[in-house]
Specification:
Number of domains: 5
Organism: Symbiodinium natans
CATH class of the largest domain: Mainly Beta
Number of strands: 75
Number of helices: 21
Protein name: EGF-like domain-containing protein
CATH architecture of the largest domain: 5 Propeller
Structural class: alpha+beta
Radius of gyration: 69 Å
Helix content: 10-25%
Pfam families: FG-GAP_3
Keywords: Membrane, Signal, Transmembrane, Transmembrane helix
CATH superfamily of the largest domain: Glycosyl hydrolase domain, family 43
Length: 1207
Amino acid sequence: MAPDALRRASPWLWSLFVSGHLAQGGTSNVPWCAPLPGRSYGNHVLLVERDALSHLPLPAGSSHDAGDWDMDGDVDVVVGDASGSLHYFENLGDNLAERSGRDSPFHSVRVPGLAVPRLVDWDGDGDLDLLVGAEDGQVYFYQRIDEHALLDRGPVYSALSGPFGFSVVDWDGDGDLDLIACGDSPKLRYFERSAPEELVELTGLANPFAGFQVHKQDEACHIHTADWDGDGDADFMYVGENLRYFSRTARGTLVQRQLHLNPFYDLQRRDVNLQQLSFVDWNGDGALDIIVNNVQSNSSLRLFVRERVLQGLVEGEWAGPHGLAEPGGVARFYVPCAVDWDGDGDIDLLVGCSNGTVDYYERTSQGLVHRQGGANPFDGIMSNVVAVPRAVDWDGDGDMDLLLSGFHADGDEDASVRFFERLKDGSLIERVGLENPLHDFVADGEMLVVPRPIDWDSDGDVDFLVAGASGQIRYFKRLDDGSLQERLGAENPFDGVDVGLGSAVEVADWDGDGQLDILVGTHRGRVRFFRQLENQSFLELTGDLNPLARVKTVRARFSVMPYVADWDSDGDSDFLAGVFTGDFSGVLVFNRGHCSQHDWCLSRGFTKGTSDTCSCILGYDLKDCSGCDESYFSAPPAATLSRECLPCPGAEDGFVCSRRGHCQDDATALRSLQGSRQSRLQLATITGNGSCACNPPFSGDGCENGECPPGQQYAQEELFMCQPCYPGWFKAKPGNIEQCKICEAGHFSSRFGSAVCSRCRSPYFRSVVDLTRTSCDFAAINIPIAIGVVLCSILLVLLLPWMFCPTVPLADVRLQPAGVTISTTGRHWLLDNRLARVSFRHTEVPWLDQGSYTVKLVSERQLLLCDKQGNAVATDTDTSCGTLHFWPCHSARMTGTFGVPFTCWMLLLWGCLAGILYMANIWQESHGFYATYLELFMMCIGALAALGFSCWRQRALKHTDLQRDLCSFERQLQDLHHNPQRSCPRGQERGITAGQLWDFFIFWQSYICSRNMYYVVSNMVKPLTRHRKVSYVELAGSCCLQWFVSHYWGTPFCHFIGTVRKHAETLSDPSPVSWMLASYWVCSFANNQWRVDEEVGFSWDQSSFYLALRSGTCIGTVMVFDNDALPLTRSWCLFELLQTAELSRNNPRFVGLQICTPSGVMSLGHRCMTHVLAREPAGRRLVVPYIYICRYRIYRKHLQKFFSSNI
């Protein structure tokens, strides 16, 4: 049979013929390896000429294009002639018919010279428009209005070097058509469509065809674009002396494919003129075909369609389980079933095992993964015999169900076929009994039940095949009710086909002729092939004609278990076989032959397995190694438009830019455009320049110069850089060798990049460096230091008064048997066996205030008054006021506590304070001795606290019991007399009642005891009248005097009060209180003790004594007598007696003198006045001259008579 006849009769036999011819070394045809998506291999294809267009004669200079102009689903042809007109050939299905005149949609098209048509959707409205290249260098645009009407829009381009030199395609993938045109320099010009009617030329490296070179500058330029390899991107064909094919890479750039990698290489070898091409899917198989014509001479159109060259099977490879056939004496059988069980689009593997289980191998990106346990969807499904699984959508619900049958390894029959329905959740449930749709199947003595479910009669439901016991194929047709009915005899389409005993049957369209063939696995380890002919009979092909002759196993001990599936997803059927040879058993996969895509990785890497992803050599990236890796940039395109990747400085040594900066590589250039609206094809022209952007302070082409400044160390993270020292670290000198060091003890750095660490020393408080040495914080030791400083300061300041003339308030001074005993308000702190020099102030005892004495310790609150020699003073003294002052030199040495002088305590406290500060400096590792502001502040706080305490203590000590009682008594007086008289005239108005005197005595008797008037005036009267500076009667409330009291101040006050009360009671009525109303003038209460000189006057007749006696209201004089008649020893008393005598003589109302004691009023007795002497200086000054005058006057006898009569 002739080759053309064989090709027309059987494409499959033609493929076998071509394959055999190639295997025998024939050179008439060179197939092209058409790539398969996602694979590193492909299928061989040839461009085979068809005569569908041979009846269309074309004159020289003609051109053409093809497309579905009338939108009826087939390809029409448009031919341009040398006169500038177009001819339209409509495809009627079985032939092409020319439409002329008004029937031609192009009848109105006329261009200057040769017309080169291009059918494209230029305006993007979804239908084809017409572009026509003309000899005047312009491309004219005719917009389609309807099928038979075109609107001339004028030229869209006006710089063609020839009418054939343009192509229209969406090159950059942005959705609109761009224009590629031939030029002079550059040879190829690219115009991007930026607006519906605007083309912008891209020049330089932005031109995707930059660097393209031609072999001859004067050769004709024909350019074509089409997605020939089916990868979704337009490829480029340039026809000069020959056709140069450029495919698009994964990056989007172009690379020239030469020799057998050029899909048109076979046609060029056959001298087919390819200057004028059009690319169309003529036969509707999804692959582009070509239509060519010879521009140079009269010819006809020639159609070349793509046809695949089928290959035989290659050597089998193990898949899934395999290994020793009988490990441990136990035979292993494996029955394969290849199906997309998990619905992810790839083929998984189900394997029936000799132990009755079904193993599941899931296809993943890493290959087959054996799922076990709960991950195996068939976990728990068991058979008593070797399991034979078959997956099919038996119930028509869209998912795979499981048929499970088997055989006994020892020959026992098991005719059952179990049915497992797949539920919506993916689980399997076995249907038994009448629910099993295969219950109609009855075994006929078959030892081996290998079911094959398939829709044999093409009625839409699944039928059932199985090899019978006698070697025939049993056929069970699926009826409308879902039951199975076995067809016998002539109704069995396999009647007469003998597959042999113990065989396993598989059905598939192996030869691709649209008819199902039969593949039979035999027990001899062979696979028989029965081809179905057009009359539905079967012809067994044997020998070399058996396409499965390559499938064979050595020393097979059991039938081959066949299964057909597209295992490698390359579009054709592959063969899987479960084999058992006695030595090995497992599943073998025999792939249908394919071709390797040579130079798929552009000679820059190699593929791994069947994936189309390459492992690229250094410097290259992307799946086909068309891109540049990190640290590499694209060189200008070569003549083949491929781009070599050049290393950045230092990249080949692994030190890109000395690892001190970033290289401006392709990846960096692309990252800079992230977020921009540019397609992958537009980004293909974006490249780096290989320069280094150095990190400061480095410089140079490769960043080789520079060193890190102080505070920064030479370190590597992603790159070598000058990294600032972390807080707590420092670097003092510049350089790239020295590293940052941690701050020394007591130093810190709080910021990045420190060249020096600061000393942790704050003038405000003690500071401590934290563990990271990044901050100088408040130290906890400040608290105990502050407490210690405060305590020392308080004690020091408290002791300071005892170092410099301490003052001790007096509580009482009186004469006791041991001598004058001094009682202090608080502790006097005098140490034992010490004789301290002291002085007194404000005691109201003149000799005590004016002298200097010493004291000895009696108790912690009592001292014994001594003279300078240490002898006890025995002078009668009574006072409860004033202060005691130690001499400074004596207080420093002789006062203290616990037997230690305060001087020593002061030194000890100063030492403690200095020790605290010294230890604080030692702890802080400070150089020198200093105190912080906090410590100074705490010293001030302690001092102020001590001063406050001292002031409070002094004030508290001054508030003795006497002082508190004085205040209380003064308040009582104020309550009784809300408006005391500010000033009362001397004389008769300054009287005081006996009741007032008695109240005064009762209140103060605990203090007065046996003390005299001197004590009372100094300690009670004067303190009470201190604020107002008045007499006591003015403060307590005065009255008109009745009696003048003459008394001696040295008389005990209790004796005085008792005498006055007795006198008042004697003169008063029997009423118990009437005596209290008797009023008296008592000098100590009537005279203003703060203005004694005014009270005494400058002469005796101006004294308050005289004025009181001569007031006119005075009815008598009461002289308070004691046992020694001491009043008569006082000059003022004698003066008062003389005035009393004169009043008695001259004033009949004047009662005269009444001498009184606490027992009553005396009426007898006498004493010579010449024996009375004055004691007080003021009295002697005023009274004594008056007495001597009276002695010689005539009144002398009367005075003697007065005394004689009253004493």
